[in-house]
Amino acid sequence: MSIIICCGSQVLLPDSNILQPATIIIEANSGKIVEVHRQLLSEDLLPPHVQLINAGTKVILPGLVDAHVHLNEPGRTDWEGFYTGTRAAASGGVTTVVDMPLNSIPPTVTVADLSVKRASAQGQCFTDVAFWGGVIPGNQSHLKPLVEAGVKGFKCFLIESGVDEFPCVDENDLKEAMSILENEPTNLLFHAELDSHSTSEDKPSDLTSYSTFLHSRPDNFEIGAISLITRLQKKYPSLPCHIVHLSSSKALPVIRDAKNAGLKLSVETCFHYLCLTAENIPRGKTIAKCCPPIREASNRELLWDALKDGTVDFVVSDHSPCVQELKRIDEGDIMGAWGGISTLGLGLSLLWTEASQRGISLAQIIDWTSVKTAKHVGLHERKGKLQTGYDADFIIWDPDAEFNVTEDSLEFKNKISPYVGLKLRGRVEKTFLRGSLIYDRVSGFDVVEPKGELL
Ligand SMILES: [Zn+2]
Description:
CATH superfamily of the domain at 64-376: Metal-dependent hydrolases
Radius of gyration: 21 Å
Shape: globular
Structural class: alpha/beta
Bound molecules: zinc ion
Oligomer: single chain
């Protein structure tokens, strides 16, 4: 049996809030953790010819599971792709991504579509990749087959999605889909904005002002959508439902009521809602546009509070890139620009930069970005923890290193991100997938091959 040993004096183990010395024994062929010792084993006690990964005083953390990523391949591979997207993920300590059903062509709304997607991902992925399916009007007969084919759940939109091939659903579509899925081992994810604008409203005059955009997607859109979802949940209580990318803190009371009533509702928010604020987005800065929008600083603080008290369950990237032209950077046309923010590679550093100022521990951050997200996608028996029997997915992390985000440092395809120019705290030094190096900050990807699996 070929063995890899990973050790360090600051390791985050599952049932602990503190970093502690540990030695992790990995079986090289399977990439599984076979033993965890809560101490540093002396090197002369180790068997000969083992591969030793010694993190020294750097921190060893479980790899992140990013449950919300748009890789856009095939069909919009000029926006992103499995190769570049998963490299970017690996550079930020993410070892599993779950790809959204839309923005690729075809979208993942039938088993045939899923096969197309899996075929194009094959051999290109640096991280493990799993897939969400989609619910659109008319694809009800494909839902059960998609569950059987292995999608981790389904995403739908209550407002136009931005791409023609993934239309939004109405209440009747939802009732049909929920009655089909209610006894399946799956969950239903909602883009929770519901357009409540009356048609008589004035056309916005200033297309470059961020506040114009903010007013066009008010808190009421999220409150209305989440109220509809929780109302439907009472009819189909066995089906777990999930709110993707919550932005509005004003929707938190509806969520708290639903959770207190015992509804199976979970909620994610994104790095950008926790790190950026509307007040700091200048006129014409289209690269900070996403839907729902980034709101005011006071809203951001309430999202942090909701994460801390468990109303919001976890944090994902919603990495949603596009080509430069669609961001309308030169015109500064925020209203006309594609809505989506590119984040892969930066999430953990972004969150640590903000969280460490708020006295939040690394263990708490990993709970939000790895443990809980793994559970959400049904991978909690093999991902998200440094524990015997789990995949040896881990990162070596320097919590004190500071760096400036530059375009050159971004690994995703289109180097457009609102984080360029920011100084962040905490840096991924190395990322390992099933015991194999998939990213090294110093040597980059020179020695690395895409070894990710499709889960
Ligand atoms: Zn998304």
